[in-house]
Specification:
Length: about 375
């Protein structure tokens, strides 16, 4: 089987490596000026011209199916390709999940819980009534790692921002969450479903810093609810592949923040050799191979390597594995991650705390350096959430 992957970043790289290990071959489709250094060694690369996307398909030769590393793609390209070859997840699934407003509408239709939200195309007086302040204003399609989002405290602030943008934004109530979780699940071409245990995620400046699975603070009933959410969304979209759903937990409530129709950073902990990785699971799901249920009694985790790092940090220690993407170093950019696995949650949390202090909070080179009086560095968020 030959799989085309649209995209050339680290997610494309890790999907391709999983596909090659399963005995498939791969090629890549990229937009003009896309940085391809993560994938050049893995298969041929074809540039997509938006006015003639079929040209790249023809140049690539025989392909059994196409998958994607990101949802922010030109839908017209996907729709054109879909006339020639299967795409997983489908253009319809991407259409809904690439746009926060369409995604929230779908969740409302499915009666799945989100924070109160509204599109700014409505009258300004409904913003306060329906959402209230403080709130978060989000671009419907742009933005990742907290970009293209604004904390807002009044109708005037919203109006000032919307005046600079040529289309509707999504206004969402600010959620004073206890912690954040995600669930990574997969659905195959045959409708088979598997769930990884929910993962607790901690962000810094809107960027994922570290994850722990199973999520230490999540009780059974909330875990069950997360699985119900994932199952409902995937069945509704007739979804094929891996999906990540990011949520806020506040008290005994789960509120869905965002759906990622793809493999996801908060699932990188599955790359430990004890586990079938989300990348292998995705390739299994789209290629018709049976899915592999999750079976691990260990505590798993990941710590992201957020730039600048000119070279990978030293050996991460026993039970850990370093994954380095080979990208150019930039402050705050995800350059790699460390996958962790320990016998107990306590050991894992201690290991993460030490590593995060060393890499960031005690490191004057890091944008996240935080010296406290007395030279002793304690990160409050770490002790609060873990
Ligand atoms: P997003 O790009 O929507 O995933 O947002 C990035 C991060 O910003 C989330 O992981 C949260 O930490 C924070 N965030 C986003 N939306 C909200 C909200 N409505 N209330 C509180 N925090 C939020």
């Amino acid at each position: 089987m030959r799989i085309g992957i649209y995209g050339a970043g680290q997610l494309a790289q890790m999907m391709a490596e999983a596909a090659l290990k399963l005995g498939f071959s791969v090629c890549f489709f990229v937009d003009s000026e896309e940085d391809t250094r993560c994938v050049t060694h893995l298969g041929p690369i074809f540039q997509v011209i938006p006015s003639d996307p079929i040209k790249a398909l023809k140049a690539a030769g025989h392909i059994d199916l196409i998958t994607l590393e990101r949802e922010q793609v030109n839908l017209e390209i996907l729709k054109d390709w879909e006339t020639q070859v299967a795409i997983f997840p489908s253009a319809k699934a991407i259409e809904t999940t690439q746009n926060r407003i369409k995604e929230k509408r779908m969740l409302d239709e499915l009666v799945l819980p989100t924070a109160p939200w509204i599109s700014t195309e409505t009258e300004a007086d409904t913003w306060t009534k329906q959402v209230g302040f403080p709130a978060v204003l989000k671009h419907p399609t742009q933005g990742y790692d907290g970009k293209s989002q604004w904390r807002v405290n009044s109708v005037d602030e919203v109006a000032q921002i919307t005046a600079k943008v040529d289309h509707a934004l999504m206004l969402e109530a600010f959620v004073p969450f206890d912690f954040e979780v995600s669930i990574i699940s997969a659905r195959s071409t045959k409708g088979e479903l598997i769930f990884y245990p929910p993962t607790e995620n901690r962000h810094i400046d809107g960027i994922l810093l570290n994850s722990i699975a199973p999520a230490p603070l999540l009780n059974q009933s909330l875990s069950d609810r997360l699985r119900h959410i994932a199952r409902t969304v995937m069945k509704h979209l007739d979804y094929v592949g891996v999906m990540a759903i990011e949520c806020f937990v506040t008290g005994d409530q789960i509120l869905i923040n965002e759906i990622a129709p793809r493999v996801h950073n908060s699932g990188h902990w599955t790359m430990h050799h004890q586990v079938c990785s989300q990348f292998e699971q995705h390739i299994r799901a789209i290629s018709g191979l049976p899915l592999k249920p999750f079976e691990s009694r260990f505590a798993h985790g990941l710590v992201n390597l957020l730039g600048p790092f000119d070279t990978p940090p030293n050996d991460p220690g026993s039970g850990s594995e370093l994954v380095w993407y080979g990208k150019a170093s930039k402050p705050r950019r995800k350059l790699g991650h460390i996958v962790q696995c320990q016998n107990t949650e306590t050991d894992l949390i201690a290991e993460q705390e030490a590593l995060i202090n060393q890499l960031y909070f005690c490191n004057p080179e890091s944008p996240f350096y935080k010296p406290l009086p007395g030279g002793h560095v304690v990160d409050e968020r770490l002790t609060q959430t873990l």
